[in-house]
DUF1674 domain-containing protein (Croceicoccus ponticola), 58 residues
Amino acid sequence: MTQERPRATKRPETFAKPAHWTNDPAPTPGDGSRHEEDDRPDPTRFGDWEKNGIAIDF
């Protein structure tokens, strides 16, 4: 068993692409900001959360 097996490079002939699949390109990723309209710091960035004015960390 010193020989490597050939890798699959083609789909099996029995594979049929579902009708709802499209050939559209993948969407471009955003800038990563989830709170664009929010002017306060992102709690996940600073490692704490605020509840009733008290910062809690869990």
User: Anything to note?
Assistant: The chain has a mean pLDDT of 72.
